[in-house]
Amino acid sequence: xxxxxxxxxxxASDLGYLLVKHPDKVHTFxxxxxxxxxxxxxxxxxxxxxxxxxxVDPQRLRAQRDAFELSQxxxxxxxxxxxxxxxxxxxxxxxxxxxxxKDRPELAATPLPLEIRVPVLRGxxxxxxxxxxxxxxxxxxxxxxxxxxxxGDSRYVDLVLRGxxxxxxxxxxxxxxxxxxxxxxxxxxxxxxxxxLLRSGQxxxxxxxxxxxxxxxxxxxKRALTTTALQSLEGEExxxxxxxxxxxxxxxxxxxxxxxxxxxxxxxxxxxxxxRVLDLGCGGGALLGALMKDRRYTEVVGTDVSxxxxxxxxxxxxxxxxxxRQRGRLKLWQSALTYRDDRLRGxxxxxxxxxxxxxxxxxLPALEASVFGHAxxxxxxxxxPNAEYxxxxxxxxxxxxxxxxxxxxxxxxxxxxxxxxxxxxxxVTFRTVGELDETTxxxxxxxxxxxxxxxxxx
Length: 458
Known about the structure:
Blueprint lengths: L1 E6 L7 H5 L7 E5 L2 E10 L4 E9 L1 H6 L19 H10 L1 H5 L6 H4 L3 E11 L2 H8 L5 E8 L7 E13 L1 H16 L10 H8 L10 H8 L4 H12 L22 H15 L4 E5 L5 H8 L5 E6 L2 H10 L7 H4 L2 E5 L14 E5 L10 H12 L3 E7 L24 H15 L1 E8 L10 E8 L1 H5 L1
Helix pairs in contact: 3-7, 7-9, 8-10, 9-10
InterPro entries: 3'-RNA_MeTfrase_Hen1_bac (IPR024026), Hen1 (IPR026610), Hen1_N (IPR024740), Hen1_N_sf (IPR038546), Methyltransf_12 (IPR013217), SAM-dependent_MTases_sf (IPR029063)
EC number: 2.1.1.386
Protein name: Small RNA 2'-O-methyltransferase
């Protein structure tokens, strides 16, 4: 699979700074389905091209046989761009996707003349134009013909995009729309795929005329996930996708793992008698909504490092429509958990629900010092995935979310929690969340930290 990015912005070689890949080297990255390479076939002040090539390893795919929908077919088209390439792009160009550049911060925020080519991409020219043209791209999509003896056009196109956009915007368009055009994903699609879609679609997806199609295909035609994503985009109740395009069979309504996790957190907060609560890393505000519905919580604070996440939370909670008394119970603050924030001191309880796994392991001591040492709430509730349970998710390879930096086994989580509790003067107990398996445990693990009495009065 191949993707090239070309710019004529002078000096064009600055593209290497934005991608954080030196033009004089061939960069190699190991990914779950093969090896990714970044190289520069042309470099000058006038024109620079960076190429991302993914070499799919059939042996790794055979080892995961029947693990995902395309496993029996993927070797027939290892050259066609798909979610495999989008996943490699996410890993290899992580900083560029975020729009971060230590060496050229101003350039990262500047629209550049770009030409992007994907030589083989499954989809039609008409759909490629519908998806990319509204985003400011000039689209050239050429249908790839079959061999002359067969005749006609295949289901693949040679896609060329030209436009003036920031590199971050361009890469995020590709990250979302490559699997949308392919209309398939090589990994298990979980509810947290919604967060990935909203993050990468920030600033453009909500206004796209085909946002329903994009959400439906990106989320593997799962109606519940699609509806939730559209509601988050609109900040209000969204129409459900048309039933005729529904890919799931009707099933008896079961409480989702997200709902079970939320209820377990609420139960822990009730147990410790908390009334003033911090939701640290609150994201789109799912837990905040439940807390606001319970009058026992007199003050609820949601914090997140992402201003976009806080905007989504404010819309979902309809903050601007709440009565003044209700609105006074809720605060939304931008704050990073790895830095001390005096505003977070003195609360009854803090919640870290599916947060710690998004931090690099070397940053965890900073979080521990900030939350347990400086903010020092009376109780802390932490939930995180149980890596041992992942074997039950059909088609899941690697971790449950591309942004997860780690996923711990039960022993690893309990070791971390016990050391943290001892260091900062807390007691800790552990609970299971979700369906329990005798061998692998539950999908989510929960730790409840409570400040020891001597530390409360110290």
